[in-house]
## 1
Amino acid sequence: MLLDLVKKARSYRRYDPTKPISPETLAELTEAARLTPSAGNLQRLRYLAVTDKSEVLALTEGVKWAGYLTDWDGPGESEAPTAYLILLSPESTGVSQIDVGIAAETILLAAAEKGVGGCMILNFPREELTERYKLTGKYKIELVISLGVPAEKVELEEMKDGNVRYYRDEKDVHHVPKRPLAEVFFTPNRL
Ligand SMILES: Cc1cc2nc3c(=O)[nH]c(=O)nc-3n(C[C@H](O)[C@H](O)[C@H](O)COP(=O)(O)O)c2cc1C
């Protein structure tokens, strides 16, 4: 069921580095993104696959992971992602960012179906990546998505007292509070 897949497609930030994601799998995730809607059907997004271990580890170090987990610096080599997809567009606009959101969630859903997990990342080292992949004058980086086989448990829970902060419990399970349906779903006579 779609809702099961949506629930499974969480943000995973700790992975099993012994289980690589192949370029073929990354191409399959991109195939799903390729078919999503885009404004004016312009299809301006491009998808740069990164699987080289040293490049993956360098990017992993440059990302700012999980801002609310103040006592965790992000995955080290033993729990690092094994691949990244970098979403590019010739020019970043409000409209291109809507396209990016649609594509990115589609990638995470397609990944979840294959037992792969990921995390959308806006807090990435833009200059470093732009230089490394010689993107200047060609593409802007819209979003980075880390990918790998998850090595952490993530659970959704109903939000209490408006507290949006995700946290890890004593068993190292990552909990993500979500606002109750009644808080986000309106009808015209109940706004
Ligand atoms: C546009 C966007 C940017 C994000 N950037 C980061 C980021 O830089 N670092 C990070 O660790 N998580 C990032 N996240 C993941 C969010 O923290 C995550 O979606 C949120 O905590 C809810 O968890 P969930 O995805 O499991 O529902 C980002 C998510 C989105 C949608």
## 2
Amino acid sequence: MAGDNIVAALDIGTTKIVCLIGEMDEHGDIYVIGHGISPAEGLRRGIVVDMDKTVRSIRKAVDDAQLVSGVEVDRVTVGIAGEHVRSINSHGVIAVSRSDNEITAMDVKRAIEASRTVAIPVDREIINVVPQAFSVDDQSGVKDPVGMSGVRLEVEAHIVTASVTSAKNIYRSLERCNLAVDHMVLESMALAEVLLTDDDIEAGCILIDMGGDITSLSIFYDGAIRHTAVIPLGGKNVTNDVAIGLRTSLTQAEDLKRTHGAALASIVDASEMITVPGAGNRSDKEVSRNVLASIIEPRVEEILSLAGREIKKAIPADALTAGIVVSGGGALLPGSIELAEQLFDMPVRYGEVMGIAHMPDGLDSSAFVTAHGLLAYGFSHEPEKGSRGGPMKSWMARLENWITKRF
Ligand SMILES: Nc1ncnc2c1ncn2[C@@H]1O[C@H](COP(=O)(O)OP(=O)(O)OP(=O)(O)O)[C@@H](O)[C@H]1O
Ligand SMILES: [Mg+2]
């Protein structure tokens, strides 16, 4: 890929595949210089079901992004999500190696490595290990132990695992597109990168991403990700309900949902009428917009209630102060925020992307947040050792490289 100041992100969603190419300038600002979007064909609920179709979809998104930016992409930061993705909290402990007891970056790495040795079924592989907090001897809650003195270093880590087959098939699809992988990242981590501030993560915050087939949930508090869950329902279920309820095709239902839909029937004027094109040889009919919203509302409520149940399981509600942040195309329905506020009795807001200095028109929608998050993640994280990409530099090094090249 031309230059170290360029990163490519690939969001393989259940409805669409998005490729973004980002360039970092001399101030460390990220500009989206190319993008490509293609319908996600060959995938079901984040799982490859038809390799050829998946490869074609990925290729199309990447080709379009290359065309727009004039940059050739050979490696990507790719997101992973789906029902097959699970997470657990684990613990790692090591003896500090230096005789003077000073903790080094290598000790931290070893402690994180030690946390990986949890019992994981053979059909699952570890995708990400995210340190939550360290303890040095008896002192807990340490954020960065490097340079501290101690004999024992412990880490609490959040371990994300995915089904081996599902992850492999994604790698294989990328391989067939001649794309190396800088990072495979849990999508929630990518979202947090651009939607949450350090204060949000410290104070406590819940991310809900309503996609096509799935809704992902992640819970952050005390400075780190603590819990993730996937609800196997999303915007596609809403569309299905509309198609059945109004006896129309899925395509028409999707269109009606996007143009006239709402997640809360009470915000819609009952006298407003919409035309429902009849499926097959049925004739068109007029229905109140309120009827459409009444079909949508219970499904969105179901999705949010299931998210609520997960939240209750994971944490006591009073532990959270910063509230809920929503993203994903499914959350674009008017009234979603209000409905979520009613259900959770907590402040709810749309996620606003931070840290991307410029993005092309149309990419500021909720549906593209994951892709922006992956891009920001690619810039801020050095590829893990043994990642399937070539050696690449951290963003600081990239920035230095950029400056040296231009001045
Ligand atoms: N303007 C809109 N109003 C209502 N719903 C919308 C709108 N735009 C998109 N959607 C819905 O959002 C869903 C897709 O969301 P998104 O693009 O976030 O999913 P994805 O990233 O492809 O999938 P996932 O995150 O599940 O892997 C679809 O069901 C679509 O109907
Ligand atoms: Mg998505």
